[in-house]
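Whether sequence alone determines local backbone shape is best considered at the level of individual chains. The sequence in question and its structure tokens are set out directly beneath this paragraph.

***
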Amino acid sequence: MVSMDIRYVGGPTAVLEIGGLRLLTDPTFDPPGDYPIGDRALTKTAGPAFEVAEPVDAVLLSHDQHPDNLDRAGRAFLASVPVVLSTGSAAARLGPPVRALPNWTDTSLERPDGGTLRVTGVPAQHGPDGSEHLVGEVTGFVLDGEGLPTVYVSGDNASLDVVRAIAGRVGPVDVAVLFAGGARTPLVGDAYLTLTSDDVAEAASVLGARQVVPLHFEHWAHFTQGRDTLLKALAGLGERAHVLEPGEAVTLL
């Protein structure tokens, strides 16, 4: 099986290199500051660890409606990318190169070696049951292909039931890239908008993941949990867990 590389930019943003392709998750490149969203604001506490200067073959955009997943610089970056895969509502709002990838549909990206990387859209629930009308549409992704690891990218998902449904259809995954942080805002009261650290550990077990890489657990003030809680929750996974420092890269499998 071919290995894959992940380099952590910050927040939900990472560069994934798999099958000769370079993919980027949720582009966020703005500096620290307050970023309005409706009648409130989200506070960013740190900027990106590095500039993504190399060409990117595709962006995996979990959603566009929150600045901690797609900010101003991230929106500008999309114009340089051949294809952006996201939700139907993101495609309608942003236009090309954003393409809708509905749940359980897939598209293929051509690999330099002549093979393909399949990208499948999978469900994500960005809050408690019944909150989609408040938080908006979100998606996750599964990547696979001949000779390649199977990779699950959760996007902003807070539901272990969603993880169980994905595991039931996809089976064990080689790499789970899980958005964490236990995010909270007044929008949904005391409920979580993303997985807690303990949820990340449980999701890894449900998925049968060989390797786990958390993202989106720091650099924004609305996270209630972070690096310390992740390291504690994932301690039992040993070398299977990779809580990366900003700018750090890891080769998996």
